[in-house]
Every structure is written in C-alpha cells, then in structure tokens.
Amino acid sequence: MKKVLTAGTAVAAAVLLAACGSGQVGGGSGGAVQNNKQLALIPGVQAEPFYISMQCGAEAEAKKLGYTITTQAPQKFDAALQTEKVNALGSNPPAALLIAPTDDTAMLAPIQQVANRGTKIVQVDTSLKDSSIAVSSISSNNTEGGQLAAKTLADLVGTKSGSVLVLDTIAGTSTTAARVQGFSDELKNHPNLKSIGVQFTQNEPEQAAAKVTAALASTPDLIGIFATNLNTGEGAATGLRNAGKIGQVNLVGFDASPSEVDGLRNGEYQALIAQDPAMIGQQGVDQAVAALENKPVTKTLTAPLHSITKTNMDANSQYFYKQQC
Ligand code: T6T
C-alpha cells in the first residue's frame, strides 16, 4: 500500500494509517529489542539542513511517543562512511533504525546485518533498490518533483529556446536519480528546451560550480539548469555568479536550505522545489513505533513537495529548512 501525506495532516494521517486495512506489515516480535525504547537515525550526511530538519521532526515525534532517538551522521555523503556508522550500532542495536541509504546497492549488506539482530528498518528519503528489508519507506515523490521542476522551468522561459543542463549528485542515489528521470521525461513535452545531458557532481558544490562554468563556455545558448539537490544548487549558483550570468540562465533547484532561500530572494534561483523533511522524520518515527508496538504499518509513504518562486516564497516560509531545531 502506498499513501500520500499532505502538509498539516500528520495527525489525520496517523489515524488513517492506524485504520488502514491492507498492505500492512505486522510488527512482529523484536527478540533482543523487546521493551527497547531506543531509536537511531542515520542520515546521509552531517550538518546539512535537509537532514537537520528531518532530525528535528524525528526527535519531536519520538519524545511525544515516549521513545528516545540518537543521530549518527557520516561526515560525507558516502557509503563507506555511512557503513561505519551502521556497523557502530554494534552488539547493542536500537529497537528501530531510521536510515537514508547513501547508495541503493552498497548499503544493503550493512543494513541487513542490523536487521538480523532484530532491529526494525525504516527508510527515510533515499532507499535501496530492494526495499523489502524495510518495514516502511518514506520519501518525497521524487519523480514528480523532477517533472514539476521541468514544468516550472518551461513556464519561466516561455517561448524562448535553449539548452538545459542537469546536475545530479552521485550514481546510486535513489532520490536524485528519480528527479533526473522525472525531469528528463517532462522535458520531452517542451521541444524549445534541449537537454545537454546529466552531469554527476559527487554531491560537492565545488564540482557543480565547475560543471556550470564548463557548460557556460561550451553552450552559449544555455537557458536553464536543474540542480537536483541543495549541494548541486549551491554550486550552480556559485558557477553562475562567477561568470556574471545570474538571472540570464534560469536556475531551478531542489530543496530549500537557508542559502537557497537567500538565493531565491536575491535572484540567483528562479524556483525551488521544497521537500518536507520534518514530516519525513516524523513519519519515520511513527512507522517505526507502529512496527515495534505491533500496530499497522504502511509500507510506502509519500511526503508532499512545494514549488516555490520569489513571488510566493513568503507564504511558503514553513517549508524552509532549518539549521537547528
Ligand atoms: O535533496 C536532499 C535529499 O532528498 C537527497 O536524497 C540528498 O540530498 C539532499 O539531502 C539535499 O542535499
């Protein structure tokens, strides 16, 4: 069963989930983790506003439900570093682990080891190719987010024609891959916009900036850039700024970090597709606790997205990501 979460309906959603009759995953007994009220969150990378906002949502919900949650984040968005964090859960694993796998294949084995010790697994944001290990997976509809980005870009350019660059993060990142797919599919409906391809950036703003610099040099008719997450967006803005091309090339970003929001206000970005990471964290905890307490669990949950422009940004400030709770 797949459910769509809408903003401001968290309580209603929880009631709906509890009443849901099909496609549910039973909690089962946790073996060694019975009566354990300890949850863990392993996000993709430390000190990043998307994951900080997710952590805030998860912590508030855990407290409300009488659980504690600790967060261990890798220093970089990197499967080897994230594996170290997973392995460090060691012989005293949490009752449930909320995790954003940084690689849709490489993270399966370490997560499997934790699951083998009785820990319930909940995927938040990114997911494995084979998600069957998780009792629940919560993310934005990233394919739709990519489509929304392409439609937004098409609206921005109107009848003008030109080339479009897509900046992805790291191969194996489920979310940004889905955004690229959605964007590329929708772009086919806009023949005035021609893709010059997808560039990986290793999720490093410096690499994104360099790709933009190179694209500006090789493609004089560059009219738009789709940056599939906040790091690629921040790098793209730097590349455009360095070349004096701010406002001449439309930049549509994903996420709503403080620096992206500032960039939207001062014209570096023309639009942002904001996620609701706090809701993803909150629902991650709700699903984990439901699994632990043998209550109905929903296998797949979709959090809402919001297209934000300079014109509507003040009315959408609740979707801006946090630097701290
Ligand atoms: O866009 C988010 C997240 O959804 C994605 O999976 C990885 O990048 C972010 O954390 C933003 O940097």
Describe this structure in words.
By secondary structure, the chain is of the alpha/beta class. It has two domains: 8-134 and 276-303, Rossmann fold; 142-274, Response regulator (Rossmann fold). Helices cover 38% and strands 19% of the residues. The strands form two sheets. Strands 1-12-6-5-4-2-3 form a seven-stranded parallel β-sheet, with helices on both faces. A six-stranded mixed β-sheet has the order 8-7-9-10-11-13, sandwiched between helices. It is elongated. The two termini are 32 Å apart. 50% of the residues are buried. Alpha-D-tagatopyranose is lined by residues 44, 48, 50, 125-126, 173, 175, 229-231, 254-255, 275. Residues 1-27 form the signal peptide. This is Sugar ABC transporter substrate-binding protein. One of its GO terms (molecular function) is carbohydrate binding.
Question: Summed up, what is this model?
Answer:
By secondary structure, the protein is an alpha/beta fold.
Key words describing this protein structure:
alpha/beta; signal; 38% helix; six-stranded mixed sheet; Sugar ABC transporter substrate-binding protein; 325 residues; 13 strands; 2 domains; Peripla_BP_I; seven-stranded parallel sheet; Rossmann fold; binds alpha-D-tagatopyranose; SBP_2_dom
- Strand elements, count: 13
Beta-strand portion reads 15-25%
Number of domains: 2
Q: Mean pLDDT score, rounded? A: 91
Helical proportion, percent range: 25-40%
CATH class assignment of the largest domain? Alpha Beta
Main sheet: strands, sense, barrel:
7 strands, parallel
CATH topology name of the largest domain, in short, is Rossmann fold
Give the strand order of the largest sheet, numbering strands 1, 2, ... along the chain: 1-12-6-5-4-2-3
Classify the secondary structure makeup into a structural class: alpha/beta
Are there runs of 5+ residues with pLDDT below 50, and where?
7-33
Q: CATH-wise, what's the superfamily of the largest domain?
A: Response regulator
Distance between the termini: 32 Å
Small-molecule binders: alpha-D-tagatopyranose
Could you say what the CATH architecture of the largest domain is?
A: 3-Layer(aba) Sandwich
Shape summary: elongated
Q: Taking Cα atoms only, what radius of gyration do you get, to the nearest Å?
A: 20 Å
Order of helices and strands: EHEHEHEHEEHEHEHEHEHEHEE
Number of helical regions: 10
GO molecular function: carbohydrate binding
Protein name: Sugar ABC transporter substrate-binding protein
Keywords: Signal
Family: Belongs to the bacterial solute-binding protein 2 family.
